[in-house]
Amino acid sequence: MGLKLETGARLVVATHNAGKARELAAILENRFTLVTAGELGLPEPEETETTFEGNALLKARAAARASGLVALADDSGLSVAALDGAPGIYSARWAGPGKDFGEAMAKVAARLEEAGAEDLSAWFSCALAVAWPDGPAVVVEGRLDGTLRFPPSGERGFGYDPIFVPAGFDISFGEMDPVKKDAMSHRALAFAKLKAALF
Ligand code: ITT
Question: The pTM is what?
Answer without folding.
Answer: 0.96
